[in-house]
Amino acid sequence: MRYNRITPEIAASLSEIVGENFVIYNDPERLEPYSHDEIPEKKYAAMPEAVVRPRTADEISRIMKLANEFRFPVTPRGAGSGLSGGAVPIHGGIVLHCDRMNEILELDKENMMLTVEPGVVANDINEFLKPHGLFYAGYPMSMETCYIGGNVAENAGGGKAVKYGVTGRYVLGLETVMPNGDIVWFGGKLIKDVTGYNMIQLMTGSEGTLGIFSKIVLKLIPLPRYQVDLLCLFKSSQEAINIVPRIITGTGIIPTGIEFMDRTACREACEYLNESIPYQDSGAMVIITVDGASRENVESEYETLGEMCMENGAIEVYVADNVTTSERIWKVRRNIGEAYNVISRRQSGEDIVVPPAAMAQMVEKLSQLAQNFGVMIPCFGHAGDGNLHARIVSDPKWSDEKWHQVLPEILERLYKLTSELGGSISGEHGIGHKRKNYMPMFVSDEYLNILKSIKKSLDPNFILNPGKIFDSL
Amino acid sequence: MDKLLEYKDIWILAQQKEGRLERISFELITRGRELADQRGCRLCAMLFGGDITDDELHRLGRCGLDLAAVCRDERLKDFNVEPYARVMDVVISKYRPEVIIAGATSTGRTLMPYAAIKANTGLTADCTGLAIDPESGGLHQTRPAIGGNIMATIKTPAHRPQMATVRPHSTKPAQPAQKSKMLIEDILPEDQWFTTGVEYLGFESSGDQVSLADSDRVVVVGRGIKKADNLPMIYELADALDAAVGATRDVVDRGWLSYPHQIGLSGITISPKLYIGIGVSGAIQHLAGMQTAETIIAINSDPEAQIFKIADFGIVGDLFEVVPALTQQIRSGGVVD
Amino acid sequence: MNIIVPIKQVPDIRNVRMDEKTGTVIREGVEAIVNPLDLYAIETAIRLAGSCGAKTIALSMGPAKAADALREAVSMGIDEAVLLSDKCFAGSDTWATSYVLSEAVKRIGSYTIIICGERAVDGDTGQVGPGIAAWLDIPVLTYLSKVSINEGSCTVRRLIEDGYESLSCSMPCVLTVVKEIAEPGLPTLRGKKRAKNLDIPTWTAEYLGIKPESVGLKGSPTRVVKIDRPKVSRQCRIEKPRSETKTAAAVKALAEKLRETA
Prior knowledge:
- The complex is a heterotrimer of chains A (about 475), B (about 325) and C (about 260).
- With about 475 residues, chain A is of the alpha+beta class.
- In chain A, about 35% of the residues lie in helices and about 20% in strands.
- Chain A is built from 15 helices and 18 strands.
- In chain A, the strands form four sheets. In chain A, strands 15-12-14-13-17-18-16 form a seven-stranded antiparallel beta sheet, with helices on both faces.
- The N and C termini of chain A lie close together (about 5 Å).
- The mean pLDDT of chain A is about 90.
- Chain B has two domains: about 1-195, Rossmann fold (3-Layer(aba) Sandwich), CATH 3.40.50; about 205-330, TPP-binding domain (Rossmann fold, 3-Layer(aba) Sandwich), CATH 3.40.50.1220.
- Chain B has helices at about 25-40, 55-60, 80-95, 110-120, 230-240, 250-255, 285, 320-335, and strands spanning about 10-15, 15, 20, 45-50, 65-70, 95-105, 125, 130, 140-145, 150-155, 160-165, 185, 200-205, 215-220, 245, 275-280, 295-300, 315.
- In chain B, strands 7-11-6-1-4-5-12 form a seven-stranded parallel beta sheet, with helices on both faces.
- In chain B, helix 7 links the parallel strand 16 (about 275-280) and strand 17.
- In chain B, helix 3 (about 80-95) crosses helix 4 (about 110-120) and helix 5 (about 230-240) runs parallel beside helix 8 (about 320-335).
- Chain B is globular and about 65 Å long.
- At the B-C interface, helix 3, helix 4, strand 7, strand 9 and strand 10 of B face helix 3, helix 4, strand 9, strand 10 and strand 11 of C.
- Strand 18 of chain B pairs parallel with strand 15 of chain C.
């Protein structure tokens, strides 16, 4: 696909649509932040020719029409906290930044629904809802920075998916600007709706390739007032992982989340934090979270789960039922990334997902893989839903050359192992352009062709976020 | 209420170390002077220590003090709460001070609450403002609370003396400007004051060039420094500025610097002339310990960092580039005399 | 032999927000936690008791809800807990608080050491520890970063402005500790269950033989006259250099600023 450059005339037209102050053009310093997301590696970055910050659906619509007329690509962007390169303009053109569309439009208490614009920070939604005793259950780990629009586009998962599911479960309505500029409502304030194809499910997780959301209707639930985290130390990864199916199938309790951290991940994070949790003796840690509306229920649930861990080989179970201790426990989990950044910036963050029952095998295989290649693969993630954030970290002594030479081999091998266990390439980060070349390892040609034909029918000129999920034709 | 009238004069608790008056004593004179003028009364000092010469004491007099009550005894050389409190009790019964102010130092914050209970009166900690209420003539004591979110003004209506500790560095020290006309009155020590279970075994200096609490300039390092190996860069900047080095809780928790460096709610509170935060995000716990600094400078790569909200000057940028450049600029430009 | 730890339940001040209109603190939705600096006292008490076979007892003065703070202390390893709660205690300043606590300590009896956190993060006075010592007429050692017990006395390291003092002290005594002393342990499942089932007695003013008018707002020598919002009036200049030359210029401007303040 060939695209045209953004000429000063096009830039002027863009300024006419959104206002001069909201177009960045010909200013490399200010454009640079829009050339990458949270992936540290430069090779996934690409500079936009211009950045446009619209305020309304109508403005987005006019931008899309202009893009079709002059054939330049449009890459939508939320907070830029993605991990798949989804918001990176790999074919140039413009980045459409949704930061100005950041209003909470309507709280419908009777229906327990909230209408928001895409640029609202996910965390702000819950801060807003708290006094009303309501809760939006989407919970990506980057909650404090990411935008709800990006969450919907990526169908973000996160730490609470075991109990609450992923973002898609809470999206009821989408006002969407289609690639050709049409503004269409999908769904609305309806809990059940079978009018034709399920467009909401298609649009959710479409990684900004099928449309740009301008209004989002979210389903709310009553705020769970009590939450307890258990930090369970196990002797080995296997023992830790084996507890997961027992919890899910054997207790009648659905925990909010089950997080897993293997030995290397715990060790580095604890050493980095100077944390005195006796991680030396432990081969793996599991954080089990339960929440609910009554203190008594939450208490009895965590006791049951904690005892079950003790009976199944846990060395110790710590209980955090207040902010002080909860923060200490989660700090370990949240700082794994930072701890490894200090060791080496040469990393590849993977997001594989396997059937929950295959977790133990996968962890074992990853540890062998790390040994074989002489790299570190700290393994952590959402054990309850089979989603593992395996992060391949270079031996700090390696040269860049060596790293770039070996990494593709490791990835190939890693994906092969994942696929053999019936797993998939990404649980929640998305394909973007980072993982698209590995798609054929997981899906058939026929499957890919269906995706491509959907794209083609909605965006025949390949204007909207081209080169993501699969190569533009 | 008549009994309250027996109490008069503003008193400060002067502090000494090895026979030399400490800076806080002169800061307290500045505070006390204002109060004594408002109240139209004398300004007096009490001082406990070992060998203190009259010459040294007259340094207080040259700052305008009217009276010094001093107890000199080898056994008062180092601070020990019981003997100190007993002497203070004697001073209180003898002179009946209307107001006693002390520094919120490790000594003041230990002695004053002990002595206040013994004297059966109230005490306000860590004041940043003191004034005489023109209506009642009582002492209004203002202090930050709830992590610096609010300022509370407190009075002691029916008890005397009115006691308060004052944050070090929250005011300028008084300068000797006149000939001393100060009266020196010795409190003669009595043996029973020195019964105590506490034995002084020794002192180990922290080895830091400049003490954090006493420094006018402080360079504070936050998590942005990434690891302990990067600290030399910070020390070089501190050295160029003749500043002390402080740290946020994150840095101390990670073991990169020791606890005595920690500034904030669970560390120490500082009020320097110049604060430079490097890679400091500005969590509320930290701000509580430094927001009264005269000039606040922040260097951080995150433009959203809270610290920029209270800074006088900020650079949004990579500290690993900015800090060495700044050190060099200072060394070549001669910022510090 | 008892080691007694007075603790305070405080609002989690990290999440305290201010009502910009009224200048008051919004406490709604703010969790009540054990004063973070008391956790170090709790941990020190547990470790010392382990080394000398003493019993540890946590005390807290506050409303009925403060029992939660005591249960948290027990779940960390404290043996017993007593709640000091009475309507007439409300509004106590540090004078009255240390009085009530010292009366409770006397009631427990056979105390060897009383360990306090350096201060509470809400009131931020650090006066209660020395106050208790004064009421009990025993010595107090503050800002301790190390404590060990040997043969009826304790040896400590005291963190002061320019270094560390080494001291020894006879017992009983009051010790206040700083964060450097020990990393607090996390509550365990076993500890939580013990805490849940533990009977925590409530001692009232009457039980302690305290006259209601001698404590609380009435009995406190100090009074709050007014509450203000601190004024922060800084004229911030923010430089956002995005290139090497601009960084150099920003650094130069900063050095200039430093020269002004020096």
